[in-house]
Amino acid sequence: MRKIYLIADTHFNHSNIIKYCNRPFKDIEEMNNTIINNWNSIVDKDDIVYHLGDFLLGDNISDFVSKLNGKIYLVRGNHDGKSINFYNNIGLEVVPTQTRLDEYKIILSHRPLENNQILNGYINIHGHIHNAKLDSSFDSSKHRCVSVEVINYMPIEIENVRKEG
Fold first, then answer.
1. Can you give the pTM of this predicted structure?
2. Potential cystine with 4: which of 11, 92, 97, 158 (Cβ 3.0-4.6 Å)?
């Protein structure tokens, strides 16, 4: 059965992210390989992955897309500056910056949404903040972060994301 996964802030090829976010890797090769191996250990070819932004630093994006299992939908983050056509042509399907999945009562985004942007009964699944805590102005019961640092550097099944909060 096809599964749906969520992940954000892989930052493939971004060596400084290791230091900025205290990632447990000695270099970008180890980080890239670990995330790719973790991803492919749970995501099958027919599964769906919503990547909530900041996929990769650099230009060899298609090299990484070709190594990852699943159909990948990209909610562009602040480091995903290429055109929509560019991403679509290499196999990442760009979706709106706020994508609602009504079946799961979630709204996907890169940056955390303001509390008043979240529909009643929904939660906002986001990235961007990595392993930092949300500002106290955000209602933590309405937000879940899926940056790699908080989901063990592997995608998380959509059914489990509410349980993680």
1. 0.96
2. 158
State the Cα–Cα distance between residues 59 and 19, nearest whole angstrom: 22
Whether 102 is covered by a domain: the verdict is yes
Q: What is the CATH number of the domain that holds 13?
A: 3.60.21.10
pLDDT digits (tens, 9 = 90+) for 115-135: 999 999 999 999 999 999 999
Q: How many domains does the chain have?
A: 1
pLDDT digits (tens, 9 = 90+) for 25-57: 999 999 999 999 999 999 999 999 999 999 998
- Assigned token pair, 147: 């940056």
Q: Which residue, chain included where needed, has tokens 């995330």?
A: 35
User: Cβ neighbours of residue 86 under 8 Å, at least 6 residues apart?
Assistant: none
Q: Which residues contact 39 (CB under 8 A, 6 or more apart)?
A: 7, 49, 68, 69, 154, 155
Provide the token pair at 155: 């995608």
- The angle at the Cα of 131, spanning 71 to 69, to the nearest 5 degrees, equals 15
Tell how many helices (H) and how many strands (E) occur in the chain: 4, 9
Range of the domain at 60: 4-160
- 8-state DSSP, 47: -
Pairing state between β 156-157 and 4-7:
antiparallel
Q: Is residue 165 part of a domain?
A: no
Residue 15 tokens, joined: 């060596």
* 81 pLDDT more than 70: yes
